[in-house]
Design a protein that fits this description.
The structure holds 2 protein chains of 2 kinds.
Chain A lengths: L17 H32 L4 H46 L1 H26 L5 H26 L4 H6 L10 H29 L4 H32 L2 H8 L3 H22 L8 H30 L14 H27 L10
Helix pairs in contact in A: 1-2, 1-4, 1-6, 1-10, 2-3, 2-4, 2-7, 3-4, 4-6, 6-7, 6-10, 7-9, 9-10
Chain B lengths: L11 H36 L2 H36 L1 H34 L6 H30 L4 H4 L2 H5 L4 H24 L5 H32 L2 H7 L7 H26 L6 H24 L4 E3 L3 E2 L8 H7 L16 H12 L12 H5 L4 H20 L3 E2 L2 E2 L16 H13 L3 H9 L1
Antiparallel strand pairs in B: 1-2, 3-4
The chains are: A mainly alpha, B mainly alpha.
Chain lengths: 366, 455
């Protein structure tokens, strides 16, 4: 019955080779996830820390300042993977979103409220006021956004659950992998935000900032990353073994291409733990703090690949008879690739120039 | 059609329209605001005009808060809503224009990065660097309009794409350039309108009048460009589309009224803009607010007109608003609509009315709700069984006309010759049609039925 509910393949051919869509999807999704994790983890940490103690306040202020850029980039970098997802798996994705339509639509409201609250927190903190309540509501908004994304993701992978969710939308939450999957992303986000905080504190101290405050910020960041990574190791295995039996078996049998990224991800987590545990004085161990941040980014990259491979395993049966016609639009594809390279170069040039340009003594500033 | 149907009392089309109009008003400001601020700051730097510089500074926060936050989220919102309400059409558009959208996305990145950097670097960088940022922003924002206009215009006038399926035939379609000129004018006058509020906060009266006059130039120029673009756009439409809202007896009276609203609101707005140009010292915020309201009205009405002109299609000449393809009519008349509409078919409980309910959800529910927007219960109330049969037969005949190509004129469906020119045809077997009639008649309130029979 369930397989009959899968909409037909779009009759229009794919306008490019499927492998290219997969590559572009993984690359753009990774960048999107870096910003998402920085925003989610940063907001949660800021809300938990509050603004009463100087180091906590400085940490919260750093996160809201970073967020006022990172939220925009998270949204903008989310467009490309959403586009490529729709090209390759539109019939699964659209169905999942329609089944939880109000939640999916509500995501927009939560994002808008969360983003404006971040600006409110930013201006309040700059004015020396408190922002604990604002940060708490902002964190709730972004946690709900993450939860909705996980629900839609799990639903588009499992057409067998569609009929039940269609009759009772709350059944969308009844997936045994929902909680460990949600925690998996949340803990990764907190670990990344912790590493960003510690690294920013190290840089602040190196540039002559208040060392006591910087030391406090770095300690908070390292502790947050350490605790999140410890919990992640437990949750990661919970998530793995909570996968549907057929999916887990098929995934484990899919050979080195699947096992290597998974093993690398686990290894990165274990190494990260030892690196973080070895940080006793973050301001004096700047290189070690940077290594921790690099390891988290590396682990995220391989986990994105694993996530992508897992989708294929989940949908293998549903796509068994899928016949995708391909008719590449080479001209427009080349235009996109050229504009993409130029766009990245011009954006980087503009941002570097904006960061480094300063008026000479006596010269007027803009 | 073969997707689940989201029951929305306000109607899916209204939801899309609401999100889309909110987004386009903001996004056109983002485009026009970039150009206006780039010009204004360039002039400010060259002339050493502190008041003009301050105007740009005040506007830059508005640009961030409205454009990069609300604009970005509501832009994603359009995708979210069309994916929920029109998944088949969304999929078709993405398959044809994915590289155009991906290219537009690159410009979004440049747009967001330069907007944020522009706001963050006041008093921190040299004027040349600041000008570079705003000109890059203006370029990126305008390029996003240049690209998205191709896809928006395609849905109304796919042109030669219908035969060739070539990306460029679809993108550079007949209403592409006229629509681009129109939207450029709209972007400029919206920017002038918004920025006038920032100008009115200038405390120096002489400087304030100077700023208001400069912004009035954008408004007058933009309104004239928009008017020219609109007339060109109308001229570029196929005859069948124009017949809906133009001529001595337009097919859709509400659309004809909307067209009048577009033009009269624009004309009234132009008068306000001319007033600001000629008497800038007398400009006050209530007058500016009224002018902006007229600008929104004209623009919003144009968007409503453009969307309404597509009836009964979502992609003209290709796909109806219920997701049925013109090319599918003949095979679905053979096999039945429920052979494809797998989600709607779940409503078929084996009874005649159950089958009818399933057919209704497959073909009608994308526009008609039961009791809310375009309520089918209200529509069928005065209709008796004979009339219902005749209506559905006529709609089925319309389908034959589409399928056979009998109504094609210069490659476009001449819908004005049909029984129901702005409704998708009935598609399906005779048994499905009878079931639909039975289901619709059962929706009639008993009292209304009696009154109807009594007459």
């Amino acid at each position: 019955m369930a397989s009959n509910l899968i909409p037909a393949v779009d009759p229009a051919p794919l306008p490019g080779p499927p492998w290219l869509f997969h590559v572009l999807w993984v690359v753009t999704f990774t960048v999107h996830l870096l910003f998402v994790n920085s925003v989610l983890g940063g907001t949660v940490l800021a809300a938990l820390l509050g603004t009463s103690r100087p180091a906590n306040r400085a940490s919260a202020q750093l996160f809201v300042e970073v967020n006022s850029w990172a939220i925009s980039f998270a949204i903008t970098f989310g467009i490309a993977p959403l586009l490529f997802l729709q090209v390759l798996f539109g019939r699964f994705f659209y169905t999942a979103t329609i089944l939880v339509a109000w939640w999916w639509l509500g995501l927009l409201g939560l994002l808008t409220v969360g983003y404006y609250l971040n600006f409110l927190a930013k201006f309040r903190l700059r004015a020396g006021k408190g922002a604990g309540g604002v940060l708490a509501v902002e964190a709730v908004c972004f946690l709900a956004v993450a939860g909705i994304q996980v629900v839609v993701n799990l639903l588009h992978l499992q057409p067998g659950r569609w009929e039940r969710v269609s009759d009772a939308p709350w059944a969308a939450l009844a997936d045994p992998t929902f909680v460990p999957r949600f925690l998996h992303f949340l803990l990764a986000a907190v670990a990344l935000a912790g590493a960003i905080l510690a690294w920013a504190a190290v840089r602040r101290a190196q540039r002559g900032g208040d060392r006591e405050v910087a030391r406090g910020m770095a300690a908070i960041g390292i502790r947050a990353a350490l605790v999140a990574t410890l919990l992640q190791l437990v949750d990661g295995f919970w998530f793995l073994f909570a996968l549907p039996e057929g999916v887990l078996k098929a995934y484990m049998r899919s050979g080195a291409t699947a096992m290597v990224p998974l093993a690398l991800g686990i290894l990165a987590g274990v190494v990260l733990l030892t690196v973080l545990a070895g940080v006793s004085d973050p301001l004096a161990q700047g290189t070690r703090v940077r290594r921790a941040a690099e390891l988290i980014v590396g682990a995220m990259l391989v986990m994105v690949i694993t996530r992508h491979q897992l989708r294929d395993v989940y949908l293998a049966a549903a796509r068994a008879d899928e016949q995708l016609a391909v008719a590449p639009q080479w001209g427009t594809l080349v235009i996109f690739l050229v504009v993409f390279l130029l766009g990245v170069a011009v954006t980087a040039f503009a941002l570097v120039r904006a960061a480094k340009d300063t008026p000479a003594p006596g010269e007027t500033a803009a | 059609m073969d997707y689940p149907i989201w029951d929305l009392a306000m109607g899916g089309g209204v939801l899309i329209g609401t999100v889309a109009i909110a987004h386009v008003i903001v996004s056109h400001f983002a485009v026009g605001g970039g150009i206006a601020m780039a010009v204004a700051e360039t002039v400010a730097v060259r002339r050493g005009d502190a008041a003009l510089r301050q105007l740009c500074r005040r506007t830059s926060l508005m640009l961030i808060l409205i454009s990069t936050v609300f604009g970005a989220i509501s832009g994603v919102g359009i995708w979210v809503t069309i994916g929920l309400v029109q998944p088949v059409a969304t999929s078709a558009l993405i398959h044809n224009f994915v590289w155009a959208w991906a290219t537009e996305w690159v410009f979004f990145i440049l747009e967001v990065a330069t907007a944020l950097a522009y706001y963050a670097t006041w008093d921190k960088v040299r004027p040349r660097t600041h000008l570079l940022l705003i000109w890059l922003y203006a370029l990126a924002a305008y390029m996003s309009l240049v690209i998205i206009q191709g896809i928006i215009a395609f849905m109304l006038t796919p042109g030669r794409w219908v035969e060739t399926r070539s990306f460029w035939d679809g993108f550079l379609n007949p209403s592409y350039l006229p629509g681009l000129v129109l939207r450029t004018g709209i972007a400029l006058f919206l920017a002038g309108s918004y920025m006038t509020f920032a100008a009115l906060r200038e405390s120096d009266r002489v400087a304030r009048a100077r700023l208001v006059r400069l912004l009035a130039l954008f408004q007058v120029g933009g309104a004239l460009v928009a008017y020219g673009g609109y007339r060109w756009w109308e001229a570029a439409l196929p005859e069948a589309v124009r017949a809906l809202f133009l001529g001595s007896s337009p097919l859709l009276g509400s659309l004809a009224a909307t067209r009048h609203l577009v033009l009269w609101a624009l004309a009234a707005y132009l008068l306000f803009a001319l007033f600001a140009l000629l008497q800038p010292r007398l400009q006050r915020w209530p007058v500016a607010a009224l002018a902006m309201l007229l600008a929104f009205t004209s623009f919003g009405a144009y968007e409503r007109l453009r969307e309404g002109s597509r009836k009964p299609f979502v992609i003209r000449d290709v796909m109806f608003s219920n997701g049925v393809l013109v090319s599918e009519i003949a095979p679905l008349n053979e096999r039945g609509i429920l052979s494809k509409a797998v989600w709607a078919a779940r409503e078929d409980d084996g009874t005649v009315q159950g089958k009818g309910r399933a057919v209704f959800r497959a073909q009608c529910a994308s526009c008609h709700t039961q009791n809310g927007y375009l309520s089918i219960r209200r529509i069928v109330a005065p209709i008796d069984a004979d009339m219902m049969g005749a209506i559905l037969e006529s709609l089925r005949d319309d389908g034959q006309a589409y399928a056979s190509g009998a109504i094609l004129q210069q490659g476009h469906a001449a819908t004005q010759g049909l029984n129901y020119p702005f409704m998708p045809p009935f598609v399906g077997t005779a048994e499905e049609m009878e079931a639909l009639a039975a289901y619709l008649l059962a929706l009639k309130p008993a009292t209304v039925a009696e009154v109807s029979h009594g007459k």
